[in-house]
TrEMBL record:
Domain HAMP: 204-256
SMART domains given in the database record: HATPase_c, HisKA
Any one GO MF annotation of this record: phosphorelay sensor kinase activity
Subcellular location: Cell membrane
Enzyme Commission (EC) number: 2.7.13.3
Protein name: histidine kinase
Keywords from the named record: Cell membrane, Kinase, Membrane, Phosphoprotein, Transferase, Transmembrane, Transmembrane helix, Two-component regulatory system
Gene expressing this chain: creC
Main location: membrane
C-alpha cells in the first residue's frame, strides 16, 4: 500500500473514531440537558402556583376560587405559538393538588380526583419537607410516554397542609431534541467530511514531498544530473533534501576525482612516452643528428605537448560542466539563427564538402546559447572530419509537440558495430579517415553533457542509406 494511502487511512480511522465518540457523547447529553432545563422551569412554576393557590386552599374554597377557574381557562387556551420553528396549538402543563394525606382534591385534567397519591414520590417526599419529583410512564407499553412531575408544598405558617404538582410530558420536548440531534449529525458529518478532505490534502502533500525525495534519490543512484528538490513550508523535508544533495556532491566528487585521475593518467601515457623517447634521442651523448632529424624530433615533442594541453583543457571543461546540475545564464535562444552562425563558422573548414539544409522553421528554446552552439559545433565538426572530399552533409530542423530535433547526416564510412556503444565514453575516439589520427575523445562526451543540462539528448547511428546520422532532441518552452 502506498505511503499516502496509509497516512490517509490512519487519519481517517482516527478522525472517524474521534467524531463518533464526540457525537455519541453530545447526543447522549442532549436529551438529559433538555429535560434538566425543563425540570428547572417546572420547579419555579410549581412554587409560583403553590403560592397563588395557598389563600384559596387554606380558606377551603379551592373549587370555587379564582385559582381553579384560572387553571381551567389555562387548559383550554390555544397559544398559537411557533417556538423555534415548532408550532404549539395547546398547553401541555397539568396541575393537580393533594391534601395533607395525599388525596387528590383538584386536577386540571379531572382524571385523578379522589385518588390516593400519597405514595407517589412527588407527593410523598414533599409532604415530608423534601424536594419531590418523579418521571413516570403514562402508557406502560410506550417507553416514550414519560411524564415529568415536580411538586411544591402548600403551607400554613410553617405547617405543610398540601402539595401542588405540575406535570409535563417529555414527548412535548421531543421535537426540539430531534431537531438538535439532526443539526448535530449534519454538523458532525460536515466536519468529518472537511476533516477527511484536509487529511487527504495533507497526505497528498506529504507523500508528494517524499515521492520527490525518492525520485531524486533514484535519479542520483542512476547517475543522472538532477537539481535538489525544494519544498514550500516544509523545513524538515527541505533540510533532508539539502543533506541528500550535499551527500551526493561529496560522493560524486570523490568518485569523479578517482575516475578522472585514472582516465587522465591513461591518456597521458602515450604522449609522455613519445616526448620522453624524442628527448632521449636528442640528448643522447655522442649522437649527432642531422638537421632534418632534429626538426622532426622537436616537432614531435611540440605536437605531443599540444595534444596534452588539448586533453587537459577539454577535460577541465568537461569536469566543469559535469559538476553543474542546471543552467546558469539561461535565456531565449533562436535555434535557426544559432545553426546559421555555427555553419558559417565552420564553412572555411569544409573545403570541397557541402553543408546543405532547407529553410529553418522558427524555434525558440530556453537555454545557454554558448553551450548549445558548442554542442552543435562539435557534432558538425565530427561530420566534417568523417565526410570525404566532395561529400555532402545534410542538416534538418524539425518541430514536433513540445520538442525540436536537429538531424545531421553526413556521407562517409559507417561506424563499426563495436564502436557504436562507446562513442560517448571519455577518451574513446576513432581515427579520422584523412589523417588516420584520433581526437582527444572528449568532444562527444562534452556534447552529451551540454545537451543533458538543457534536458535534451543526443544519439549517433548508421544511416540506412549510408553514412552516419546524429540526432539532437531538445525540449521547447
Amino acid at each position: 500500500m502506498r505511503f499516502s494511502l496509509r497516512i490517509f487511512f490512519g487519519y481517517f480511522l482516527l478522525v472517524s473514531l474521534l467524531a463518533a465518540y464526540v457525537l455519541s457523547i453530545v447526543r447522549d447529553e442532549i436529551k438529559p440537558a433538555v429535560r434538566q432545563s425543563s425540570e428547572e422551569v417546572l420547579v419555579d412554576t410549581a412554587n409560583l402556583l403553590a403560592e397563588l393557590i395557598q389563600p384559596d386552599f387554606v380558606a377551603g374554597r379551592l373549587d370555587a376560587g379564582r385559582f381553579a377557574k384560572a387553571i381551567k381557562l389555562f387548559a383550554e387556551r390555544n397559544p398559537q405559538a411557533k417556538v423555534w420553528g415548532v408550532p404549539r396549538d395547546k398547553t401541555f402543563l397539568r396541575v393537580y393538588v393533594t391534601d395533607a394525606q395525599g388525596k387528590v382534591i383538584m386536577d386540571s385534567t379531572g382524571q385523578a380526583l379522589g385518588q390516593d397519591y400519597s405514595q407517589w414520590r412527588d407527593v410523598y417526599l414533599t409532604l415530608r419537607g423534601q424536594y419531590g419529583a418523579r418521571s413516570s410512564l403514562a402508557d406502560p407499553k410506550n417507553e416514550l410516554s414519560t411524564v415529568m412531575h415536580v411538586a411544591a408544598p402548600i403551607t400554613k405558617g410553617k405547617e405543610i397542609v398540601g402539595v401542588l404538582t405540575v406535570a409535563r410530558p417529555n414527548w412535548a420536548m421531543q421535537p426540539f431534541i430531534d431537531r438538535s440531534e439532526n443539526k448535530l449529525w449534519r454538523a458532525g458529518l460536515l466536519l468529518l467530511a472537511i476533516g477527511l478532505v484536509i487529511g487527504a490534502v495533507f497526505s497528498w502533500w506529504l507523500s508528494r514531498g517524499i515521492n520527490k525525495l525518492t525520485g531524486f534519490a533514484l535519479a542520483v543512484s542512476e547517475g543522472q544530473s538532477v537539481t535538489v528538490p525544494s519544498f514550500t513550508a516544509n523545513r524538515e523535508l527541505t533540510t533532508l533534501a539539502t543533506a541528500l544533495g550535499t551527500m551526493r556532491e561529496r560522493l560524486e566528487g570523490k568518485a569523479y576525482i578517482e575516475n578522472y585521475v585514472h582516465d587522465l593518467t591513461h591518456e597521458l601515457k602515450s604522449p609522455l612516452a613519445g616526448i620522453r623517447g624524442a628527448a632521449e634521442i636528442l640528448f643522447e651523448e655522442g649522437l649527432t643528428l642531422k638537421e632534418n632529424d632534429h626538426h622532426r624530433f622537436t616537432g614531435h615533442i611540440r605536437q605531443e605537448t599540444a595534444r596534452m594541453q588539448q586533453i587537459v583543457d577539454r577535460l577541465l571543461q568537461l569536469a566543469t560542466l559535469e559538476a553543474r546540475h542546471g543552467l546558469k545564464d539561461a535565456e531565449p535562444v533562436d535555434i535557426a539563427k544559432l545553426l546559421d552562425e555555427v555553419i558559417n563558422a565552420l564553412c572555411p573548414q569544409a573545403g570541397t564538402r557541402q553543408i546543405l539544409h532547407a529553410p529553418w522553421p522558427g524555434a525558440i528554446i530556453h537555454g545557454e546559447a554558448f553551450l548549445l552552439a558548442q554542442a552543435i559545433r562539435n557534432l558538425l565538426q565530427n561530420a566534417l572530419d568523417f565526410t570525404p572530399e566532395h561529400g555532402q552533409i545534410h542538416i534538418e530542423l524539425t518541430i514536433a509537440a513540445q520538442s525540436l530535433q536537429i538531424t545531421i547526416h553526413n556521407q562517409g564510412e559507417p561506424i563499426p558495430d563495436y564502436a557504436l556503444s562507446r562513442l560517448f565514453e571519455r577518451f574513446y575516439s576513432l581515427p579520422r579517415p584523412a589523417t588516420g589520427q584520433k581526437s582527444t575523445g572528449l568532444g562527444l562526451a562534452l556534447t552529451r553533457t551540454m545537451l543533458e543540462l538543457h534536458g535534451g539528448s543526443v544519439s549517433l547511428a548508421n544511416h540506412t542509406e549510408g553514412g552516419v546520422v546524429a540526432r539532437v532532441c531538445l525540449p521547447m518552452d
